[in-house]
């Protein structure tokens, strides 16, 4: 019995020494990764699986008043023995000593980057194509400023992220899964299969398949509302305007999408949920072979399927339209008035000079290139105060310069023209 007690105590001592050594090596690695790069952290330890856990990470970013922080970062393989083997192989640069099958796990919780007005000053150079497409038809806007995000209640970029890379040395394959959730913005999910994977020859691997999915967490809806308001259109009308501008943008880039795409995209723009790209090429593709190919050729090589709001689009591409077939810009379908209809009144062309006679009436007019409909509240001097609708259920009052009101129509009593005199 004493033998077993001594053996048990001996194993405890050995385990403590191993853990102490592993903790020391972990702290060395963490200090090298964080402290040596200008950051700091509150604590670090190894969990029961031997995974490294770091809490309270902070990095000061030059030019920004607040630090970027991560509440907790967890890294490892999920297995104590595998962690030991992998750490030893990497430390000795002995890649052949890595296990034949293992996972690399990264889990970041509570990452936060406070927004700072200085961030708006770093956007130099050409506007990314994705921004141009997202804000097509939104005037001169190509992005959201820090002030815009603050008005939406977004004061920091907050995120949780997970990465899992599964290595299969026996079959020379690797599988990578990414999950990044940006609170109030979007969620990105990606998975890739890499064929011919080798630590010693990373450029020799090929893309065997995978998917990319972006889900809206509310930001696309906020952009639609903002652009509709700035364009003095309803959200439905802004969607029509946006697609017209998008067609012109894609035409200039020699990208010709099908009517089925635009029909599905219009429904997505009105109710954005997710866009997903699934690809399964007939044979593995070298990443460098995809550089510089046209969008149509790229989708063909990837053997890709595009899904918008879970609806597959077939076909994705169409024929090149004649330029005359492109939609007119800044022309949207007039919507039926949602203003109060008064019995016995009809919408009639009306002289702008007589606007003061119709206080309390509904007016329809053009003003500085935009169409308006609203209720005339008052007329004073050179201005008319009109309450108009910016989107469903939301109306605001604004003074309009009478001299710039064009094509005025008022819902009013019908007044027959005076009979002509033969005198």
Feature tags:
423 residues, alpha+beta, SH3 type barrels, 12-stranded antiparallel beta sheet, 6-stranded antiparallel beta sheet, 18 strands, disordered N terminus, disordered C terminus
Ends apart, CA distance between termini? 136 Å
Total strand segments: 18
| Inertia-based shape | elongated
Oligomer: single chain
The low-confidence runs, each spanning 5 or more residues with pLDDT under 50, are 1-18, 337-342, 416-423
Structural class comes to alpha+beta
SSE arrangement, N to C:
HEEEEHEHHEEEEHHHEHEEEEEEEE
> Mind describing the biggest β-sheet?
12 strands, antiparallel
Q: Averaged pLDDT, please?
A: 84
Helix content: 25-40%
C-alpha Rg (nearest Å): 31 Å
Q: What is the strand content?
A: 25-35%
- Total domain modules: 3
Count up the helices. Answer: 8
Question: Can you walk through the features of this model?
Answer:
The chain has 423 residues and is of the alpha+beta class. The protein folds into three domains: 1-97, no CATH class; 129-333, no CATH class; 345-413, SH3 type barrels. The protein has eight helices and 18 strands. The chain has helices at residues 2-33, 80-91, 129-134, 146-151, 219-230, 235-252, 259-270, 295-302; strands spanning 39-40, 43-46, 52-59, 68-76, 101-114, 156-168, 173-182, 186-195, 206-216, 274-279, 304-308, 311-312, 345-349, 362-367, 370-380, 383-391, 394-401, 405-413. β11 and β12 form a beta hairpin. α5 packs across α6 (235-252) and α6 packs antiparallel against α7. Mean pLDDT is 84; it is low at 1-18, 337-342 and 416-423.
């Amino acid at each position: 019995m004493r033998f077993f007690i001594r053996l048990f105590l001996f194993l405890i001592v050995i385990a403590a020494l191993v853990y102490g050594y592993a903790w020391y090596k972990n702290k060395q690695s963490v200090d090298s990764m964080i402290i040596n790069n200008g950051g700091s952290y509150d604590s670090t330890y190894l969990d029961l699986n031997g995974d490294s856990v770091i809490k309270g990470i902070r990095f000061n970013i030059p030019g920004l008043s607040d630090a970027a922080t991560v509440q907790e970062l967890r890294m490892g393989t999920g297995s104590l023995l595998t962690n030991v083997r992998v750490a030893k192989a990497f430390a000795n640069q002995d890649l052949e000593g890595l296990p034949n099958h293992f996972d690399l796990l990264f889990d970041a919780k509570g990452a936060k980057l406070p927004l700072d007005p200085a961030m708006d000053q770093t956007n130099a150079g050409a506007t990314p194509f994705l921004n141009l497409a997202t804000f097509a038809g939104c005037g001169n806007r190509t992005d959201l400023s820090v002030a815009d995000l603050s008005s939406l209640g977004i004061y920091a970029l907050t995120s949780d992220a997970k990465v899992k890379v599964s290595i299969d040395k026996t079959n020379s394959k690797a599988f990578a899964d990414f999950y990044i959730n940006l609170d109030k913005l979007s969620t990105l999910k990606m998975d890739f299969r890499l064929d011919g994977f080798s630590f010693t020859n990373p450029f020799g691997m090929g893309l065997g398949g995978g998917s990319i999915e972006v889900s809206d967490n509310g930001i696309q809806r906020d952009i639609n509302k903002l652009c509709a308001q700035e364009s003095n259109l309803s959200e439905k009308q802004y969607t029509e305007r946006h697609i017209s501008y998008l067609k012109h943008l894609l035409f200039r880039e020699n990208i010709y999408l099908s009517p089925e795409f635009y029909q599905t995209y219009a429904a997505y723009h009105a109710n954005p949920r997710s866009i997903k790209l699934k690809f399964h090429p007939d044979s593995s593709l070298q990443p460098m072979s995809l550089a510089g190919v046209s969008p149509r050729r790229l989708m063909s090589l990837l053997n890709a399927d595009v899904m918008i709001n879970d609806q597959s689009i077939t076909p994705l591409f169409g024929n090149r339209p004649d330029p005359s077939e492109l939609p007119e810009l800044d022309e949207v379908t007039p919507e039926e008035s949602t203003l109060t209809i008064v019995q016995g009144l009809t919408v009639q062309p009306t002289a702008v000079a007589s606007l003061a006679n119709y206080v309390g009436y509904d007016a329809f007019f053009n003003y500085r290139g935009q169409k308006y409909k609203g209720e005339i509240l008052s007329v004073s001097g050179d201005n008319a105060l009109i309450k108009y609708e910016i989107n469903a259920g939301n109306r605001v009052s604004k003074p309009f310069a009478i001299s710039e009101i064009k094509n005025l129509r008022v819902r009013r009593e019908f007044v027959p023209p005076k009979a002509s005199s033969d005198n």
